[in-house]
Amino acid sequence: MRKILCLAAAFILAATWAEPSLANRSVSLSKNVYQVPSATTDSQTDDAISVPFSEDFEVLSSLNPWWFVNSYENRWCFGTAENNTTDSYGNLLPNGRALYISSDDGASATYNRGHEAVSYACVRVNFPQAQAFGLSFDWKCMGEGSYDALSVYLVSADTQIDTTTSGAPSGYPVLGNLSGSYSFQRASAILSGSEYFGEYILVFAWRNDGSGGSPLSAVVDNLSIVAYNCAAVTNLAVTSVEESGLAKAVLTFQDNTNTSASYIAEYRLHGSSDQWNRISATSSPVEISNLQFGSQYDVRVRAFCSESDSSLLSEEVTFRTVCGTMSLPWTVSTSAMEIEQNPAVGNQPAPVCWYNIKGEQSGYTGFYYRGYSYQDLYYGGSNGPSTNHPSNYLITPLLNLSGNDRLNFSI
């Protein structure tokens, strides 16, 4: 037999969406027919859990600090209809529990899509002094975009959670509008230690708008909050050099807090969505080799004080590598050219590492880059050179030619 813990509010939800808010403390909740821990029945509890902690919802006594503020329909429950907790062999626990929204007293993790609802599952969390905290949990929810979705808040300890008012706490959700997944995903957020210290209320907020959507509601399992005491590095700076015909970057940073820390520098081409490349180091400076000449990169650094304690990422720095000798094959796409408005060499805007020299100072003749639909290098204008000798030059970067090389271009 399934064992299900579920609560229902004794009021009909107002028709507007409300984030957790300061409200009347006299809100009363009625118990569902299923047995629930005493702390989750009628009102907020003063019990708080301390960081670090993890919760898989399997031990009933660990659920005592939780309480629900539920709408009449689509209510938070502790039950066995869904779960993502595994044993030491990686097998899903039979009859394992999770926290989920249900419209049928916890028999399934489905919701009534024709009834507008807002429901909250809440627990007090005590944050110690730390550099940062990591919040993570497993979730799945189909819902309907941002209309029927799960969001997560951290609100001040004196907040009275009540769905019957339209007020809302300052700030934004820690994680918002989680929906669109039939399978479990791992959600995570990094919380700054300078912002979170002392007691807060962690709120899992469900809302649906009363129309549309997919039946699978919000499911939460394997909640964890850990503390990070490793400090982030500061004053990250980058110098680009050429060495043995290759572009290289030298990273420097300061770490005046951590002792015996190691570091990982992450880098990738600027504007790229590719995975970050990683370099391990034990101190500053850090060298990154085999980079592309004349290219922009983003770089950041994280400190590791132990296997379980790492810092926040440093500020992200963007730098450009030096212009060296290009190896063949060398190709250029004018549709992706980056133009320097004030190049170090030349007197006209030019593609990075190219030279654009306008020798004829009178008139408008010269080389230009045309963007928009053209995206090409263009020579044009009027009042050209007064003699037959050309005086405007567009010069490519240095190329390492070996003989028998061919130049192809379109005009």
Can you walk through the features of this model?
With about 400 residues, the chain is mostly beta strands. Helix content is about 0%, strand content about 40%. The chain has no helices and 28 strands. The chain has strands at about 5-10, 30, 50, 55, 65-70, 75-80, 100, 115-125, 130-140, 150-155, 175-180, 180-190, 200-210, 220-230, 235-245, 245-255, 260-270, 275-280, 285-290, 295-305, 310, 315-320, 340, 350, 355-360, 365-370, 375-380, 390-395. The strands form seven sheets. Strands 1, 2, 4, 6, 7, 9, 12 and 14 form an eight-stranded antiparallel beta sheet that branches. Strands 3, 5, 8, 10, 11 and 13 form a six-stranded mixed beta sheet that branches. The termini are far apart.
The description of the largest β-sheet is:
8 strands, antiparallel
Proportion of residues in extended strands? 35-45%
Q: What's the end-to-end separation, in Å?
A: 77 Å
Please state the structural category.
Answer: mainly beta
What is the chain-wise order of helices and strands?
EEEEEEEEEEEEEEEEEEEEEEEEEEEE
